[in-house]
Amino acid sequence: RAQAGKQVRLEVNISGGSIDDPDLPAVIEQELITTGADPSSLILEVSEMVATSRHEQVKELAKRVRALGCRFAVDNFGSAVTNFRYIKDLPLDFLKLDGDLIATLPESRTDQLVVKAIVDIARGMGCETIAEMVADDETLFLLRQQGVGYAQGYQVGRPQPVSEI
Question: pLDDT per residue over 28-64, tens digit each?
């Protein structure tokens, strides 16, 4: 929920082992009811590896949590760009660009082109993009040029305990 004029979003990584838990969506729903949290402020994410190796299970989980009003993301995207075929029919809100791809962005024209391609595909899928490991102004500038919507990393803010937010 918003505090002191700031909107708080919580991103939760879902492990591959949790994907098959049939009670997970019910637990999430109960926690939303108990806490009174806005479901759209909760972003659940799975790694690209989990999304591709457990495709059908991830697809079902994404549908269920999005029906609760939560949002869904694939994390570390771009570490294996050949996996576009696996994510094209997942109901996603975000693609989180792999930090290793972002870390070398200023030095690598190839990485810049890959980021641009991912941004274009994400837009076509109706997704927003989040860049991980943004460490400096030059990288942030390049991400803006490429159309990336959000950034995470030391350049935009250090990790903080939830109790301090």
Answer: 999 999 988 899 999 999 988 888 888 889 989 999 9
d(CA 90, CA 125): 9
Lookup: tokens for 4: 């002191």
Dist. CA 48–CA 13, nearest whole Å: 11
CA distances from 149 to 46, 68, 109 (A): 19, 24, 20
pTM, two decimal places: 0.64
Alpha-carbon torsion, ordered 133, 135, 136, 140, to 10 deg: 10
Residue 63 to residues 17, 70, 92, 116, 131: CA-CA distances in angstroms?
A: 18, 10, 9, 27, 24
Quote the CA–CA distance of 40 and 16 in Å, as a whole number.
23
What single letter denotes the amino acid at residue 34? T
